[in-house]
## 1
Amino acid sequence: MNILITRKYPEAGLQLLKDTGYTITEYTERRNLTQEELIEACQTQDALISVGGNKLDETFFNACGHLKLVALMSVGYNNVDMKAATRAGIPVSNTPDVLSDATSDVAFLLMLAVSRKAIYMHQTIIDGKWDFYDPNENLGIELYNKTLGIFGLGKIGFELAKKCKATYNMQVIYHNRNHNDKAEQELEAKYVSFDELLQQSDVLSVHANLSSATKDIFNKEAFNRMKPTSIFINTARGQEHNEQDLIQALQQKIIWGAGLDVTNPEPMAKDNPLLFMPNVCVLPHIGSATTETRNAMAAMAAQNVIAGLQGKQLPNIVNK
Ligand code: DGY
């Protein structure tokens, strides 16, 4: 059996694959394969481990008749046309749960960094501007007893809510397609409408999957409904907020601050105005970037491949 991996692969996953005796091809150049290259490479492959968001569309699935399965090393699957995969008879798996702690840590980190302008304050020292103590300067916002709003309360949102409640006694409100009974019971989270979420959140954190329903949902109209003291956090997908509208909302002080681990496009241009705003912190999509989590994700994707190539159902199949 032949397995293609689109990046240099974390050791825990690689070892599991090596132990099977299958032939592994790791693409180790620091660039994304083009679709033509990926299609060509997949002609002889039985399994593809997609790392880094390759676009897998109808053209790809129709052109890769030999492929038996695709394992994504990510929880998000917005780059995959699942209907086309299903039509082509190719199961696709993702890596849920194992990155919830690490990603919710980054949402928490952004919330705290923005609330105290930490990144900007660090830069003021580099710029030689730490020259005076004025009790009215450099002021942040405290998080104690504030309201955390979660858009898309799944596993990652739950972990963030748990940390915010335990650390800052934050009240949790959320908006989802469905009620989250566990969050309501364990965290006293309250289900609210999208409009109430916008109006009541002191910190609004995005955790929903990217879909046609969530694309651009945080736009001018949404920011206009938020509190002038509120902080917007996005660790899900950059296409869920409209960047120009976010820049304007911050410049016009319609909202107070923003923390982003995801941007649109990625990578963000180094002259993007968001990078120079005091109340903004932007990170380069590092939600799951810890040694432990990346190894756990790689192992989970490998286990899906191994199960699939043994003719079993992929444990984390998305297109059932
Ligand atoms: C995920 O797993 O979806 C992360 O955002 C990395 O792409």
## 2
Amino acid sequence: MKIIVTDEVSAEGLALLTQEPRIQLDVKLGLSKQQLLDIIGNYDAIITRSGTNVDRDLLDAGKNLKIVARAGVGIDNVDVDYASSKGVIVVNAPFGNTNSAAEHTMALLLSFCRNVTIANASLKSGEWKRAPFTGQELKAKVAGVIGLGKVGGRVATRLKAFECEVLACDPYISVKRAHDLGVKLVSHDEIYKNCDIITVHTPLNDETRNMIGPREFGLMKTGVVILNVARGGIINEQALLENLLSGKVTGGAVDVWSEEPPKSEHVKQLIACDRLVVTPHLGANTFEAQVNVAIDVSREIINYLDDKPMENA
Ligand code: MLT
């Protein structure tokens, strides 16, 4: 089996494949769309992260493709329906990086609340200022978690450890799960109306694209803190920018963008906003998570070769 790896995936995690005599593994990073289209026909499987768009063009050019393996949770960069219609199996790694994403959410939230990034830049530039970097505590804040799945659930637990009151909404989650996590399930609008902090942890799909836009910002409290460590496009970026500029949103953090890397002027303006802590899609970027997800997709490919059931296809 010939496998191409097109995004940065942990070499340690891929060892199962590199040691497997039935497999030839080619790591080819930084290919243009055309370069990948030119060579994909030579491969039986592709391993990606979020940097490669597995669209119709790629699936059509991949005449021998049998597996698209996504070393991560989100499959929004894969045309799953078209792949399935062509008999190509799409497999992901839904568990290995969820802790990493939850910890990154907390890192960004705390960085924002305590002005870590801007105070760090100020001190390194030779200044000694304290008053402008007075922060706010998480204790006693009402935090809203939208999407109480594997990442959202972990974020909720961590927010509770910081003594927040946690509200959550998720139409696919049982009241029992919310109860077990010690959070109150409410409607989306109740989250917008009542929370001091709002963090999204849903996949990006037709139901969630632009889920938080002008109407939702209109319902929010003045001074709300907004976080997106899930997917760019769940929160409408133009609406977020406008609400940051008006002061309705006091600030927050964004790790994921509707375009990666960002190109549009309004996204660049968002990134430049002082009151927004920003990172370049690092939620899943811990050594631990990258090894985990690479092992998970490698196991699935070996299962395929051994004619065994694939767990996350
Ligand atoms: C995920 O969907 O699991 C992550 O966004 C993966 C990645 O960092 O590419």
